[in-house]
Amino acid sequence: xxxxxxxxxxxxxxxxxxxxxxxxxxxxxxxxxxxxxxxxxxxxxxxxxxxxxxxxxxxxxxxxxxxxxxxxxxxxxxxxxxxxxxxxxxxxxxxxxxxxxxxxxxxxxxxxxxxxxxxxxxxxxxxxxxxxxxxxxxxxx
Length: 141
Fold this sequence. Notes:
141 residues; Jelly Rolls; 23% helix; 8 strands; oxidoreductase; RmlC_Cupin_sf; two-stranded antiparallel sheet; six-stranded antiparallel β-sheet
């Protein structure tokens, strides 16, 4: 159980970061008064895309939704709120949007240096996408 109110000293979070080798971290606040280029960023987050690295997010305050594609290419909406952590594997198509509160504060975690590049769909030729699709096929068997 993660403690979002005390993330700086949370031993559970510290252990997750150690075990998964999440060596880089920052905090992003998504709110019109806190995020430069808010409207542009919100549109970018909501464009269906993938990354070549895992995307790890830990919600420290507020709430929102990650939408991911299932094996049949249908959307699954994942409600995220304070205390939730998600790892989206490299190669999965996804998007993020705020809920009616229009506010979220999240920790972004990376293995090594952060890579922010989103690849909008279609991006099926990347090795990360092919590896993810192979994983889905193996899981279905």
